[in-house]
């Protein structure tokens, strides 16, 4: 009979592979942004939120916080590097006002992360207490990561178009949530189970919207580009 820990490790490895696919899924979007030299109507929100999410889960998986979580560390550290690249591309091709908002958000995230580390190490002296404290925060931010596409989902319903909601990102979100929920159930970890269960639900809703509005999407529509004069004026006023 296969031991539960062995099954959990196998599921965790599968989860790493799918999560890697999740982090890779926006690649066609960023290729499009790079070629057009414009972020068009794509939003940086999901990627900025995911930066903090990956930092928190990497910290959660460290042995002195939550032992036996190597697979959580590996995928989230890789994800952090990839999300920073995505955010960097947004910084290159966004307007000045958007760049400013992204930089402020990243600064706030960094300060918050440092504060969490200090509180964890100075106030909590057992892995059980550290896991509980960091785990609660991870749940909140993982929910934020999965909730971030709500702005895009609202746009889909309003415009009856899925042009700016990448299909593979939605599919990867759904598969990722399912696999990590199973991983959490095998060695009950509520901190992993709750956000990934909600993530699977979020991904499912996105797939349903994609199925509903795929036929009404005008794929030939010209991409939205900010007017050059407006962009120059905004940059001059805020510099």
UniProtKB/TrEMBL annotation:
Where is this protein found?
Answer: Cell membrane; Endomembrane system
Keywords (alphabetical) are: Membrane, Repeat, Sugar transport, Transmembrane, Transmembrane helix, Transport
Q: For this entry, list what GO says about its biological process.
A: protein homooligomerization
Q: Which Pfam family is one of those matched by this entry?
A: MtN3_slv
In what way does this protein cross or attach to the membrane?
A: Multi-pass membrane protein
Asked if Membrane is a keyword of the record, the answer is: yes
Sequence intervals crossing the membrane: 6-25, 46-65, 71-93, 105-126, 132-153, 165-186, 192-213
Q: Which GO terms describe its molecular function?
A: sugar transmembrane transporter activity
How is this protein annotated for GO cellular component?
endomembrane system; plasma membrane
| PANTHER family per record | BIDIRECTIONAL SUGAR TRANSPORTER SWEET5, RAG1-ACTIVATING PROTEIN 1
Q: Which family does it belong to?
A: Belongs to the SWEET sugar transporter family.
Functional description taken from the UniProt entry: Mediates both low-affinity uptake and efflux of sugar across the membrane.
Protein name from the UniProt record: Bidirectional sugar transporter SWEET
Q: Which species is this UniProt entry from? A: Trapa incisa
From the broadest rank down, the organism's phylogenetic lineage runs: Eukaryota, Viridiplantae, Streptophyta, Embryophyta, Tracheophyta
């Amino acid at each position: 009979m296969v031991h539960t820990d062995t099954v959990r490790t196998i599921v965790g490895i599968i989860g790493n592979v799918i999560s890697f696919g999740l982090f890779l899924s926006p690649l066609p979007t960023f290729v499009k942004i790079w070629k057009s030299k414009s972020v068009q109507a794509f939003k940086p929100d999901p990627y900025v939120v995911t930066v903090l999410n990956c930092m928190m889960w990497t910290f959660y998986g460290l042995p002195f916080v939550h032992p036996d979580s190597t697979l959580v560390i590996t995928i989230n550290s890789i994800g952090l590097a990839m999300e920073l690249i995505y955010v960097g591309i947004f910084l290159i091709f966004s307007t000045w006002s958007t760049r400013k908002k992204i930089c402020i958000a990243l600064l706030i995230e960094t300060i918050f992360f440092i504060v969490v580390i200090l509180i964890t190490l100075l106030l909590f002296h057992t892995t059980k207490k550290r896991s509980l404290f960091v785990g609660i925060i991870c749940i909140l931010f993982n929910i934020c990561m999965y909730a971030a596409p709500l702005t895009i989902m609202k746009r889909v319903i309003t415009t009856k178009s899925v042009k700016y909601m990448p299909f593979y990102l939605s599919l990867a979100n759904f598969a990722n949530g399912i696999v990590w929920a199973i991983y959490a159930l095998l060695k009950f970890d509520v901190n992993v189970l709750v956000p990934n269960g909600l993530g699977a639900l979020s991904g499912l809703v996105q797939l349903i919207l994609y199925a509903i509005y795929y036929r009404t999407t005008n794929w030939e529509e010209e991409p939205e580009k900010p007017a050059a004069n407006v962009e120059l004026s905004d940059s001059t006023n805020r510099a």
